[in-house]
Design a protein that fits this description.
The protein is mainly alpha-helical and 69 residues long. 61% of the residues lie in helices and 0% in strands. The chain has helices at residues 12-26, 41-67. It starts with 11 loop residues before the first helix and ends with a helix.
Length: 69
Protein backbone atom coordinates (compact mmCIF):
# COMPACT_ATOMS: atom_id res chain seq x y z
CA UNK A 1 0.00 0.00 0.00
CA UNK A 2 1.42 3.35 -1.02
CA UNK A 3 0.89 6.50 0.96
CA UNK A 4 2.58 9.88 1.20
CA UNK A 5 2.66 12.11 4.25
CA UNK A 6 1.80 15.66 3.25
CA UNK A 7 3.12 18.61 5.23
CA UNK A 8 0.94 21.64 5.86
CA UNK A 9 3.19 23.98 3.85
CA UNK A 10 3.77 21.55 0.97
CA UNK A 11 2.05 22.32 -2.34
CA UNK A 12 -0.46 19.79 -3.62
CA UNK A 13 1.39 19.34 -6.94
CA UNK A 14 4.55 18.29 -5.12
CA UNK A 15 2.61 15.78 -3.04
CA UNK A 16 1.03 14.29 -6.14
CA UNK A 17 4.46 13.94 -7.79
CA UNK A 18 5.80 12.17 -4.67
CA UNK A 19 2.85 9.78 -4.70
CA UNK A 20 3.22 9.11 -8.41
CA UNK A 21 6.94 8.30 -8.00
CA UNK A 22 6.21 6.01 -5.07
CA UNK A 23 3.52 4.14 -6.99
CA UNK A 24 5.84 3.70 -9.99
CA UNK A 25 8.67 2.53 -7.72
CA UNK A 26 6.48 -0.10 -6.08
CA UNK A 27 5.33 -1.31 -9.50
CA UNK A 28 1.64 -0.65 -8.96
CA UNK A 29 1.41 1.50 -12.08
CA UNK A 30 4.11 1.80 -14.69
CA UNK A 31 4.66 4.63 -17.10
CA UNK A 32 6.05 3.77 -20.48
CA UNK A 33 7.04 7.29 -21.51
CA UNK A 34 10.45 6.35 -22.81
CA UNK A 35 9.45 3.10 -24.48
CA UNK A 36 6.49 4.19 -26.56
CA UNK A 37 8.76 3.99 -29.57
CA UNK A 38 11.30 1.46 -30.84
CA UNK A 39 14.65 1.54 -29.08
CA UNK A 40 17.76 0.14 -30.66
CA UNK A 41 19.36 -2.68 -28.68
CA UNK A 42 22.49 -0.54 -28.16
CA UNK A 43 20.36 2.25 -26.65
CA UNK A 44 18.71 -0.20 -24.26
CA UNK A 45 22.12 -1.58 -23.29
CA UNK A 46 23.53 1.92 -22.69
CA UNK A 47 20.54 2.89 -20.57
CA UNK A 48 20.96 -0.24 -18.44
CA UNK A 49 24.70 0.38 -18.04
CA UNK A 50 24.09 3.96 -16.89
CA UNK A 51 21.45 2.78 -14.42
CA UNK A 52 23.90 0.20 -13.04
CA UNK A 53 26.61 2.86 -12.71
CA UNK A 54 24.22 5.16 -10.83
CA UNK A 55 23.27 2.30 -8.52
CA UNK A 56 26.91 1.45 -7.82
CA UNK A 57 27.84 5.09 -7.18
CA UNK A 58 24.94 5.43 -4.79
CA UNK A 59 26.14 2.32 -2.95
CA UNK A 60 29.70 3.70 -2.76
CA UNK A 61 28.47 7.05 -1.43
CA UNK A 62 26.33 5.29 1.16
CA UNK A 63 29.23 3.11 2.33
CA UNK A 64 31.54 6.13 2.43
CA UNK A 65 29.11 8.11 4.56
CA UNK A 66 28.69 5.17 6.94
CA UNK A 67 32.48 4.89 7.44
CA UNK A 68 32.76 8.52 8.50
CA UNK A 69 30.82 7.85 11.71
Amino acid sequence: MAYVRVDENEPLEKSIKKFKRLVEKEGIIREWKRREYFEKPSTIENRKKKALERKQMKKVRKMHSMKSY
